[in-house]
Every structure is written in structure tokens, then in C-alpha cells.
Amino acid sequence: MDGYIALETGRRRTLKAAIGCVGIGLHSGRRVQLTLRPAAPGAGIVFRRTDAGFEVPALFDQVMDTRLCTALGLAEAPQLRIGTVEHVMAALAGCSVDDAMVELDGPEVPILDGSASAFVFLIDCVGLVAHGGLGLRQMEAIEVLRRVRVQEGDGPEAAWAELAPNTGGSFEASLTIDFPTPAIGRQSFSLRLSPQSFRDELAEARTFTMAEDVARLRAAGLALGGSLANAVVVDGPLVLNPGGLRRPDEFVRHKLLDVVGDLALAGAPIRGRFNGYRSGHALNNKLLRALFADRANWRAQPGNATIDGGARMPVAAAAAAAVA
Fold it and tell me: Cα–Cα distance between 223 and 208 in angstroms, integer?
């Protein structure tokens, strides 16, 4: 099945049962227990912090920080946040999970091995079940109608990201990264997203950093839980991890994994084509904000995700879809 296509027309998917894990937060260094739970039809993906007693929908307009990760939070209580959501969001989107509760007892999703593969494993362990039906006003996907582009910097080396229409009706993505460190350099990767291609091509790609940045990050209170067990660390031409890389181009694959997770915060699957150059969490979020800023950029496709103003879509987008 290609690109988020529903397994059963008009039916949403959730987990068959709850399943969890325990790990360390990459930036906080805190031990965190995470549980993935089934959710009601139309609930979308919602994060709940049991230690702080609050919930936040997994939507781009709830993003409060994009420094080295994507963090959700409440505008009225900025001290309450849920950091590093991108890898579990990528796994949920890549496995075509429509409705789920992501419950955790700390401020950050555990990093585990630095990839999305452990979250995919948890989802596969319990499996998915179709639920809901055609009784609700629904939207299967967000169809991109015209090119939307955002950029940081000027000149040929400016970082940029864009969404464009895709006549194939699926989600396709192409990304190029360019780092001065020789171990990474310039890498490009493209794929047509499906549950199988996500598992085969992106899920195992790990987050990475440069050795010279580690001390600076820790002095700033970041990467406190980072280690060679959960991140690829490079030093000039060298990869310091004893096992080396999982793929020669693991770096760009991980960045594209981040794109999948960040764009899953649209609130419904996107049908279009993503292109990017040196894009990161900030640009990915800026791109979604630009997409939904103009109703002419997109339209709702009937089917599989609610547009009734529920948690599944940002408020402004839900209102626009309701009158379309």
C-alpha cells in the first residue's frame, strides 16, 4: 500500500492494545516511561503527561520549540512541554496509525536507540485494528493544491523546504543535506512513503551530532542523555560509534525520518510532494504553518480523518475545511 492509503475505506486505525517502554530523554537525561494506547475514532494522536496532568494534540500549531527537536506544549503554560516527539510521530505516521494516545511520565519522549525502529516494533507487537466508520464528516488526507515554499538565509546555500502537488495521490519526499564535516558531506535521498518503505528505508536511521558540539550542547542543558548508544557521533572523517553506520547515507535518511514526523503534525496525512535542502525541525514546522495560512493551498479529501474541529486538525484548518 502506498502513502498512507487506508487499509479499509472510511475506517480509521488504532492500536489493538496498550504497549510501553522505558528509556532516557535525549536532552533531559531523565528516565521516562512511555505507553502507546488505543484511542477513539477521530481522536487523532494526542500526547499526555501523567506527571503533570495535561494533554496536547499532536498538531503543528501546538509546537513551542524546534531547537534540536520538535516540542509540543501549551501556550498558556510554557513550562509544560513534551519534547522530541518527531521519532514516535514518524513511526505512527509511517505505520498508518490514525488514533492513539502517547502517554509519558516526563518532559520528553525517550530517545531509545535514536531512530524510530523501536516504536515501529512496539506498534507491530500489538498490531492495528480498524475502527470508526462513515457516520462522521471525515477527511482522508490533505491534498496540496499549489506549491508552498519557505526558506532560511539567502543565496544558493539557503536552507529551504516546499510542498507541491503530486498527481500520484501519495506522499513523496526528497531531501538533500550538506554538512562541512567529511563524515557526512552532501547526501540526498528520495522515496515514496508507504508502511513498507518507511520500515525498509527510514525507520532504523539514527539521530546524529558532531563531537565538537557535544560539550557546547551539554553546557546549554541539552543532550544530557546522549551517548553512542542513542546517537551517531562524528569527528571530522570518523564515525565514533563502534558499530559504524547502519547505512552509508544514514544521516540524510534520519533527516527525512524527521520530515515524516514533523509533517505528521499536519493532523491528517498529506498527499503531495516534499522537497527540501538542509531542512530541519524549524523549517518543517514553518512549512506547515505556511501551507495552512492560505485556504487556496490545500483541500480536504473525504474519507479517513475527521474535519469536525476535533483534536485531529488545527482549529484554523478545521474551520476552513468545514466550509469547503
Answer: 11
User: Which range among 25-29, 33-37, 305-309, 314-318 shows the weakest confidence by mean pLDDT?
Assistant: 305-309
Distance in Å from the first CA to the final CA of the chain = 28
Choice among 27, 87, 254, 281 that is catalytic: 281
74 close to 47: Cβ distance less than 8 angstroms: no
- pLDDT of res. 139: 55
- Predicted confidence (pLDDT) at residue 114 exceeds the cutoff of 90: yes
**Among 123, 137, 135, 132, CA closest to 12:** 132
Torsion of CA 128, 17, 267, 47, to 10 degrees: -160
Q: What is the CA radius of gyration of the chain?
A: 19
| Residue 281 appears among annotated catalytic residues | yes
- In the numeric block, the cell 519526499 is attached to 173
What is the per-residue DSSP string for 118-177?
Answer: HHHHHHHHH-EEEE--SSS-EEEEEEE-S-EEEEESSSTT-EEEEEE--TTSSEEEEEEE
Residue written as cell 509540543? 72
Nearest CA among 49, 104, 111 for reference residue 77: 49
| Predicted structure pTM score | 0.90
Q: Is 245 helix (H, G, I), strand (E, B) or coil?
A: coil
Distance in angstroms (rounded) separating the CA atoms of residues 85 and 30: 15
**Which amino acid belongs to residue 175?**
L
